[in-house]
Design goal:
Blueprint lengths: L6 E5 L3 H13 L4 E5 L7 H9 L4 E2 L4 H5 L6 H10 L2 H10 L4 E3 L4 E4 L4 H15 L2 E3 L6 E5 L2 E6 L2 E5 L1 E4 L11 H4 L5 E7 L1 E4 L12 E9 L5 E8 L3 E3 L1 H9 L1 H6 L3 E7 L6 H14 L15 H10 L12 H13 L1 E6 L1 E3 L5 E6 L17 E3 L13 H19 L2
Parallel strand pairs: 1-2, 1-10, 2-6, 10-20
Antiparallel strand pairs: 3-5, 4-5, 7-8, 8-9, 11-19, 12-15, 12-18, 13-14, 13-16, 14-15, 16-17
Helix pairs in contact: 1-6, 1-13, 2-6, 4-13, 10-12
Length: 410
Amino acid sequence: MEAREHRIVVVGGGAAGFMAAIAAKTHAPAASVLLCERTDKWLAKVRISGGGRCNVTHHQADPKRLARSYPRGERFLRQVFKAWGQPATVDWFARHGLRLKAEADGRMFPVSDSSLSVIDTLWRAAADLGVEARTHCVVAAIRRTGAEWRLTTPAGELAADRVVLATGGSPKADGLAWIAALGHAIVPPVPSLFTFNLPDDPVRDLMGLVAPDVRLRIEGTELESTGPLLVTHWGFSGPAVLRLSAFGARVLHDLGYRYTVGVNWPGEQGAAVVREQLGAQIAAHPKRQIANLEGTALPQRLWLYLLARAGIAPEKPLGEMGRKGAERLNDVLVNDRYRASGKTTFKEEFVTAGGVALQQVDPLTLESTVAPGLHFAGELLDIDGITGGFNFQAAWSTGWLAGRAAGLGS
């Protein structure tokens, strides 16, 4: 008796879904692999990532160190990355004709600096293998019927032996109810990777300014972050802010996105060091204008703004600042405060914390432990990373392992 064709359906036409479909067909060339996308836009996040350049991954290759950049899923991803991590991703793209380059901050982009080259690479790989792809393929429900899965779509039911769900994050738990109905625990989703709104704060007049190395904290919590800070027309952004919003996603949600941001503008320098530097400059150059203070490592526009916050005239000689003036300036430098209210999505990238609970997923196959034959990949899982290529790396890795397991499950 001739064996029945192995049928695999991958739901979701993003980074994780494409990689899952490619891996499934790679490991099961004779299988029928169908890739479903609910919209008419394939690889939408890939297209817009990095301002259209696509931040494919990060240069960190060590699985343990790489996993530290994920506020949710670190322990789980250590195993995932050991099985198929950053080196495997870079190698896969290279073997398919797309070379990547690392920038100074560790982000890796295609040498072409175009997300279209990433999209073309994925499309060619899928097409060469014979993956079938359908748009407007909306999966409304999924159920197990005997030995196979049945997926309900507007065009009728799809039958599959293995299913990979890579539908991306949902802003609300209701959007994952169809997965919860299969017996899976859902961690309630909340936004991650967002910038801070500072309504009507005069600091916004400095938009476009970058403070190179600040230390941020959320007052009343243990949340802290260091790195560059960008002032925008709505408030604060940049690596330090995005990292803080990612690791503090649930805390900030519980605070209703109303909190006080503490800023140490000189960064790792403590109050005592800043006070000592100010004292030394006053003693050495008492007639120098305060506006021309040396050694602050802060942009001049920011320095003048902070002087105004401390109530100090910039044209005043250093020697006339006085002890009280020096203390006020020191306090503004290392203990500045801003009231945040609300959030703004980072560029056009929406990232959620939450999703399918990792305790019910095998990290080596991404297969459900409560629904055999069902695999998960990408942001649908309770996994999210900071900015820098980490979310795509999780997508490539979980997609590949899920697809490979689905293909080998025949």
